[in-house]
Design a protein that fits this description.
The strands form three sheets. A six-stranded mixed sheet has the order 3-2-1-4-5-6, sandwiched between helices. Helix 1 runs parallel beside helix 2. The protein is built from 13 helices and 14 strands. It folds into three domains: 132 residues, Hypothetical protein VC1899 like domain (Restriction endonuclease-like) (Rossmann fold, 3-Layer(aba) Sandwich); 137 residues, 3-Layer(aba) Sandwich (Trna Endonuclease, Chain: A, domain 1), CATH 3.40.1350; 64 residues, no CATH class. It is elongated and about 80 Å long. The chain is α/β, with parallel strands linked by helices. The protein starts with a strand and ends with a helix.
Length: 354
């Protein structure tokens, strides 16, 4: 059995990832932080509790005195201890490293850029650390940053006529927007052409009252809003074998107001790839305002911390004009062509694309 000793800084993700890699043999976790990281420690303890039912101790040390750190953690230098030196201050790292090195214990660093665990001492590390970083449930990563999920829906795979219609809409976004603006009853030539093309392809039929119904029984109203676009994006992540949540609403611990009151953070699609949250905002209306880009980016970073990747998926006519504002927020921009390419892609492609 292993004891994981993690230095805790402003980000809690390294401790979570390493706990996930060791959870089959984990006996307990000790988080070494300071008074400045007390809140992060509480969040990390709650999140690790979702990964593995083991005791998690929070211990505060002097963050800028390596000799004091060395004295404070001497009792943790026990057989089976693994020292995670990813977080914390440099003096904390020095003090902890000296203890691990003197006792011949493994000390490691989580390199999220190369997706691997780096050994810092000559002591052997667990075999599980030779593997690529695991994918952690997105709720755990949200919880690690102090976010409380108040609502979410599991993603499902689009199939049959619904999938074919979604693909057609992405191939002909102008026609789809025209059809939506006419509420399925024409909406101009392009809108009428969109509806009739679906009928000719056998993907939909008209009821005696003129309502458009898809071949699998789904009503055309599903495609008048943006819900189908969220499901298309979520489907791509599901196809890559990831855990996906849709329509995620969350609040931050400590926010004023009742727990079930107004939610400040709402996201269309949330998943996780190793140490990173992937959050996607889907906009299918005629226009996307630049203010939405900033608001989405700020909210997502609030609950995701530094380890969050953002993407804006849009069929809006003006989506290309938003490119500078999207880039300034460090976000990926997925228009119709990029959304079509999501199908059948791997985890690694999704990591790069967003």
């Amino acid at each position: 059995m292993a004891v994981l000793v993690s230095l805790l800084g402003e980000q809690t993700h390294p401790a979570l990832i390493l706990a996930a890699m060791l959870k089959e043999r984990l006996e307990r976790v000790v988080l070494l932080g300071s008074a400045q990281t007390r809140q992060q420690g509480r969040h990390a303890r709650a999140a690790i509790g979702l990964l593995a039912p083991v005791p998690v101790e929070l211990r505060e040390v002097a963050p800028y005195d390596w000799s004091a750190v060395e004295e404070a953690v001497g009792d943790l230098a026990v057989p089976g201890a693994i020292w995670d030196l990813t977080g914390g201050t440099k003096p904390m790292l020095v003090g902890a490293y000296r203890v691990a090195q003197a006792k011949g214990l493994p000390a490691v660093y989580l390199d999220t850029a190369s997706q691997r665990v780096v050994s810092l001492t000559t002591a052997p590390v667990p075999e599980s650390f030779d593997e690529r970083l695991p994918d952690v449930d997105p709720v755990v990563l949200l919880r690690a940053n102090g976010a409380v999920v108040t609502h979410s829906e599991p993603a499902y795979r689009l199939a049959g006529a619904s999938r074919a219609v979604a693909r057609w809409a992405l191939q002909h976004p102008d026609h789809w927007r025209d059809w939506v603006s006419g509420r399925g009853r024409g909406g101009g030539r392009a809108g009428a052409a969109f509806a009739e093309q679906l009928v000719r392809q056998g993907l939909a039929r008209r009821t005696p009252g003129g309502k458009l119904v898809f071949a699998d029984g789904t009503e055309g109203s599903l495609f008048r809003g943006g819900y189908w676009l969220e499901r298309w994006v979520a489907d791509a992540f599901l196809g890559a074998g990831l855990t996906v949540l849709c329509d995620v609403r969350c609040r931050m611990e400590g926010d004023a107001g009742p727990p079930d009151g107004a939610v400040q953070n709402e996201f269309d699609v949330v998943t996780s790839r190793a140490a990173r949250l992937h959050v996607v905002s889907c906009k299918s209306g005629k226009r996307v305002e630049g203010e939405h880009v900033e608001a989405f980016g700020n909210s997502a970073r609030r609950v995701g911390g530094r380890f969050v990747r953002l993407a804006l998926a849009s069929l809006a006519a003006n989506y290309q004009f938003l490119a500078p504002r999207v880039a300034a927020q460090g976000m990926a921009l997925w228009g119709p062509a990029e959304l079509l390419r999501l199908e059948g892609q791997s985890k690694q492609w999704l990591e790069v694309a967003s």
